[in-house]
Amino acid sequence: MSHALNLLSGAGRQHDGPLLFIADARNRLERKLLGKCLDQLSAALSTASSANRIFLPISKDTGLPGLQGFIRMLEAPPETLLVPIRVAWLMPENDGGTHKPLALRHLLFGDPRHPGNLRGRWILFRDPNRAECIAGEPATIADLKARYSVQQGSRAREAMEEFASFVARQAGLALEIAEWGLIGRRYKAPRFVAQSLASSPRFRAALAALSSETGRPVEELRTEAAVYMKELIAVPSSLFIDLRARFDSWVMKLSYGGTVVFREDDLARVGEIVQKHPSMLLFTHKTYIDSIALTATLFKNDFRMLHIFAGINMNFAGLGLLMRRSGGIFIRRKFQDNPLYKLVLRHYIGYLMEKRFPMTWAFEGTRSRTGKLMPPRYGLLKYVLEAAYTTDASNIHVIPVTVSYDLMRDVQDYASEQAGKLKKPESLKWFIGYLSSLRQPMGRIYLDFGDSVVLDRAPDPEDQLALTKIAFEVAVKANKVTPITLPAVACLVLLGAAPRALTAEEIQVEILAIIRWAHARNIRLTSDFRLKRLSHVQGLADAMRGMGLLIRYDEGTDTVFGLEPGQHLMASYYRNTIIHHFVNKAILEVALLRASEAPEGETLEVFWLETLRLRDFFKFEFFYPAKKKYKKQLLVELERIDPRWEDRLVAGQQETLLMLAGMQPLLAHATLLPFVEAYSVVFDLLARLNETESLQEDECVSRALRAGKQAYLQRRITSEASIGKLLFQNGYKLAQNLELTSGGPEGLGGRRIQLLRDFKELSRKLERIRLMALSGHGE
């Protein structure tokens, strides 16, 4: 009981007025323990001040019996100091002095940190030190009335019942803060959220405004809003937070040994941010394990609990309960036509931001089926920033988080989906099957935190351009901290050589060249490239072979490795996770080859025009900075290649080709060829149409899947990695952006044919660069 004695002895010596102890007692045993504690406190304070006490089951969340008596006590003089007090039940300690984690049996018997009468007596019999009397931060009635006045705008007599409820909630929150000091910040969670929202003047005003707009009575809206609150608001408890942590740890052990690799300084920086500022951690989305890797890592490092947004499709039996009771917020897929649902969601988010509870969700909105960062979904970001704008939040931090993997079980499904197979709907049966499929080694998980996108104030909700810029900046910073993994760079090398297999020495030479290039540009690398990780490298190679991804042939004169032709889509996924690091280099390589073919005196102009043309061709695939910054990035890379690059470019074809050949490792073919070939399939379909004919996206993708398969069998495209729904969709978007998909205008057929020729020419250039890379010289 020393915690309460120490706190209140100091407060009592500074306070000469009356005291009112608010004892949060859930049962008879706690009432008895708190009574003894209060007797000790009264004796320890040795003050002439009068001291009253009241017992309220604040933490039971089942209403407040005895509220009328509490109201009478609150009529005491304004200088009366209210002191909340509670019994904190601690977990037993290990030999090392740390508290033991919760066990699965506690799901059946209940959380020992919230015992009933009989269980509490048994705990005290075995270890009396597990019950600790704690006190929350005291406050006077005058101070609390001032706070209530700010929130409610009224201290009228008729509002005394609401004021008493407000004081009880404040006492509960003060006790929660005190208890976190004993059990850890990871259990910090909002309490009384629905009650706080329902009594908020801002929420009431919003309901009244919506009533005026829709003609629906306020009471009807309030009743319906309560249903949405029950659906939306997470109700975390320490029991389920612990159980979620155990579940997360178990899932990660299935494939990844339970280890997540991260940088300590990054984690310390993020920890400081989320304590001081309204924060959002937006993670890249590749698999269902992404959020698990993030929340498990933060739990182990005693971060305050994250509120994680998920689609309501994940709210199925078992998992839905576990997530909701550990901070999960399930959002409906469609609610644009439901203004009341949007209103409740916006005010709930605003409450979490105001109380400094960090939020997290998948930045892309859906799992990436290609490996690259997907275009961001603006919905949740828009609602969060609208809530921040409404509550006038300041210094908002949007933190990009990348979750990377050596290997992933989901990639097999993605390859099937890109080939046209339908995605299976989520369910409990599906989830059990998914977990079972994880029982194979897949290397490690890597967690990286980018620099925050800091907003002094949230933009106006109508400013769509500002929202787009914020999302774009998050994407760029996420890409920047995505590390190069060994399987990804191996797939980059092998896809670039396909259909050829390579010897181990050839693969090693190529990988080392790429790593040296990346290291010189401060691109993040995993630790697999260090000598001490060689055993892990062999394990990865075995895992890749076990997944049917890698072929090893050692019955000839040399041992060679290659990619299974039927698994090129899988290999391209891993390659695509790091492809953004090489896009600018690939564009420079193609632009130099194009400049080498330009007439004398035009090489420099042709070179820069080609860089811009390629940027526009692939604007639906990659995130680029503004054109000025883009050109600056290219100039920095050119200076690295040769400070005299401009003189050499102007000197003519031979010197330009020599400069290109010196840009080892050459990667344009390994980077851009699948996109060029996929787009060519789409443009070929358009070129075959009459000028008056249009082509819709769904029909285009369906036909392209079949035409792509034929082109691959005829070897008009080099790999099945160039056959995929999302690739064809982006090719269609480019054609649509160039106004080539709708029939009618005169000359349309010629423009369609010209675009196809442009991409056929690009294929020719990439094939030439591939031959230069394989031969090691320019001709």
Task: Tell me about this structure.
With about 775 residues, the chain is an alpha/beta fold. Helix content is about 55%, strand content about 10%. The strands form three sheets. Strands 6, 7, 8, 9, 10, 11, 12 and 13 form an eight-stranded mixed beta sheet that branches. Strands 1, 2, 3, 4 and 5 form a five-stranded mixed beta sheet that branches. A three-stranded antiparallel beta sheet has the order 14-16-15. Helix 20 (about 485-495) packs across helix 23 (about 570-575) and helix 27 packs across helix 28 (about 655-660).
- Largest sheet at a glance? 8 strands, mixed
How much of the sequence lies in strands comes to 5-15%
Helix content: 40-55%
Judged by helices, strands and strand pairing, the structural class is: alpha/beta
SS summary, helix count = 32
First-residue to last-residue Cα separation: 83 Å
Radius of gyration: 31 Å
Mean pLDDT equals 86
Number of strands: 16
